[in-house]
Amino acid sequence: MSLANLPQHSSSSSCKSSLDEEFDDDTEVDTDRSRKRCKEEDLGSIEQTQGSGSQVLVEENSKSSRKKDICAHPGSFEHMCIVCGQPVDDKFGVVFGYIHKGLRLQNYEVDRLRKIDLKRAMRHKKLYLVLDLDHTLLNSTKLDRMTAEEEYLKSQTADSLQDVSKGSLFKVDIVDRMIKLRPFVRTFLKETSEMFEMYIYTMGTRVYALEMAKLLDPRKEYFSDRVISCEDAIKRHQKGLDIVLGQENAVLILDDKEDAWTKHNSNLILIEKYHFFRSSSDKGGFKCKSLSELKSDESETEGALAAALDVLKQIHTTFFHELEDNQRDVRKGCKRVFSYVFPSKFQADAGSLEQASSDSIHSAVKLQTICCGKAT
């Protein structure tokens, strides 16, 4: 039975309510209600037509019904089943702590919710997009690791975090970091939100992830509560789509690290790293100055995010307007992995572009048009 339709224990009502809002399926609800009404009417009919002499038959039917309706415990919340409220072993299923602390869902329930949400997403012509934070949407550095040439930035941060929508440089005391949002990021998020249900997925801590989400999405228009941190990951230092409630054939990933998603490379769009600050690893002899030290930045219109947005638009168009239903798969039918956003000084020759194209199954990307990271 579905999570949305079964009676459940009152102590887990807030958890169930949230899931119902996220994955409500009117057709499924109506069908289950109709079945319950039919069952009740059938039992009532037996009692009326056969009288007390059929009491045994009614009891047998009731016992059989109860056996069939034994709760399968599709998920648990704080060691209790989210449907019946009975104590359960919390070693089963997958942890979805970013949705509700202490929430676990059985694999079959995760699959059911994904199917429901995919139908809703398809109706609205939306795919799923999982976004990394560091070096993808922003760059950050510890305040005590800033170089002497970067100190000037401390006087240029936003005076207040009350309205972050207009700023791009912030000093966030709660995480003791200076944050620089990547150029074009606000336009990127606004336009991608029209085509995708978006997640943040970072190997940073939950506190850090939520603070960055506030800077990127102060009104919670884009990510809602879909913010995943290292504390939610199933495998340490490894990202996976196991805890993303989207079908893999409709999920794209934008990240600067290929090895972070070894199981899902066919879903991955790899973007050039954004190095605004001098990283701690650069201080051991790397002579190239950071963008902040050069008092420069990526281009808004020709930078990595602008190029990635063009690619995402092409994939979305191909998926919904150029493929039959049975071909719709971002990993195959409409996309050979957009493997690399070329570094700013990379000069691609005709041979390398030809080789990239020859690897395509059905490329939605014309690599010749991609040139990212140009500084202004």
TrEMBL record:
Biased composition (Polar residues): 46-55
Family annotation (Pfam families): NIF
EC number: 3.1.3.16
Biased composition (Acidic residues): 20-29
Ranges of biased composition (kind: Basic and acidic residues): 30-42
Entry keywords, A to Z: Hydrolase, Nucleus
Reaction catalysis annotation: O-phospho-L-threonyl-[protein] + H2O = L-threonyl-[protein] + phosphate; O-phospho-L-seryl-[protein] + H2O = L-seryl-[protein] + phosphate
SUPFAM superfamilies, A to Z: HAD-like
Domain of life: Eukaryota
Keyword Nucleus: yes
Positions of region (Disordered): 1-61
InterPro entries membership: Fcp1, FCP1_dom, FCP1_euk, HAD-like_sf, HAD_sf
Gene Ontology CC annotation, any one: nucleus
Gene Ontology molecular-function annotations: RNA polymerase II CTD heptapeptide repeat phosphatase activity
CDD domains given in the database record: HAD_FCP1-like (cd07521)
Start and end residues of each FCP1 homology domain: 122-297
Compartment(s) where it occurs, according to its Swiss-Prot or TrEMBL record: Nucleus
EC top class named in words: hydrolase
Principal subcellular localisation of the protein: nucleus
UniProt cross-references to PANTHER family, sorted A to Z: RNA POLYMERASE II CTD PHOSPHATASE, RNA POLYMERASE II SUBUNIT A C-TERMINAL DOMAIN PHOSPHATASE
Known role: This promotes the activity of RNA polymerase II.
The name this protein goes by in its record: RNA polymerase II C-terminal domain phosphatase-like
Species this protein is from: Pyrus ussuriensis x Pyrus communis
